[in-house]
Amino acid sequence: MTEDKQEQGEPVALDVTLTEEESEFLRDSIGTDDVSSIRLTVGHGHSGYGLYVSNVDYQDEGASLIANTTPQQRKPLTDEHLQRIIYEHTKLNPNLRDDQELIGYIINAVRAIEAAHGVKE
Asked: Residue 42: how many CB atoms within 10 A of its CB?
């Protein structure tokens, strides 16, 4: 079994391509023999968020929703966690007034990015 990583967009909790042997087991389990490899993905699709199955050779022709699932809820980082990251990866000093102002701008930018990606309380 091989796992693929999504290059961009929503994180994928599961994206698996089955080998022909694994696909054969699944085909036998679901009573079909007309595909060589099967791909399983979890994400947003034409029928909502859920587990989709598709033929690897004909992925563009669509996938079938086989189970509805609830997407993982992502929470924003705490201010303390953000500050720790900023201090570890920059030379900013939390004791300097100018640096405190810059840190505030960085945190605001991170919050905007989180919001753009649907990360909220």
From this structure: 20
Closest by CA to 4, choosing from 22, 13, 16, 19, is 16
List the one residue out of 90, 52, 56 whose CA is nearest residue 69. 52
Strand-strand pairing, 48-55 and 64-68: antiparallel
60-99 pLDDT, tens digit each: 667 777 777 776 677 899 999 998 999 899 888 888 888 8
pTM over 0.85: no
Edge-to-edge, what's the strand order for the sheet holding 15-17? 2-3, 15-17, 38-45, 48-55, 64-68
Q: What is the pLDDT of residues 109-118, one digit of tens each?
A: 999 999 888 8
Angle CA 63–10–89, to nearest 5 = 155
Q: Would you list the domain boundaries of the chain?
A: 2-68, 79-116
